[in-house]
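User: Fold this; tokens only.

Assistant: Input:
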Amino acid sequence: MTKTVLELRNVDKSFGPIDVLHQISLKVKEGEVLCLLGDNGAGKSTLIKTLAGVHKPTRGTILMDGAEVSFDGPRAAQDMGIATVHQFGGTFPLMSIGRSFFVGVEPTRGWGPFKIYDRKKANAIAVKAVQDFGITRVDDGDRLIGGLSGGERQSLAIARAVHFGARVLILDEPTAALGVKQAAHVLRIVNEAKKRGLAVVFITHQVMHAMAVGDHFAVLIRGAIAADFRKGERSREEITDLMAGGETMADLEAQIEGYAEAQTDNPPPPSP
């Protein structure tokens, strides 16, 4: 049985009189991908920020390894092993791969006031970490981030998070701005992270991408969990309908048909 790493119990988040999240209960398990699905405005961004320590819950409990925790900020969440990779990988286009990989924690050589950045070591570690994820095209740590594809940037950010001890990987729309080939590349990286035992939260509004990697699914509508199910329990069409608020194509067709009949029974007056 897989172990629950991160759990939310009845979490609410309000900003003044505005309630954004309502009674959110979720479990994120090691070696599994939890796909958090929802359309724009569903509350996904607020939930991500709550998981990542940016926002504190107004009510409810967050647990790590079964123990209640409270994050004072994103750094506290990172220190407990929660890493967030945003849509464009959070990388720096004019930095080298090695420098970007270690930004803020650069390896050095020398002693005391004579310490300098160890470029060779940083490049070697960064390239190996990325290639371990199957990104063999990246073989030069001095290469600028701006020369990488969107999928490669995402892969670099994920490899960096894993290298620095992430246990929970939160991926915010990682395939949203990518082409078919690059998106498939990122999905392979997500599966690799799962194989390594990480707990992955995959936030997306693209059902096909979610179904390709997901083990556990939660649909968020207007800040509340509208459905919580395992792989194979819902079809693509059912998930799409849920994301649309439960309004199926049959419902829409019935509305259109009813409108057409009403127009036939009550035609508009002739133009003068």
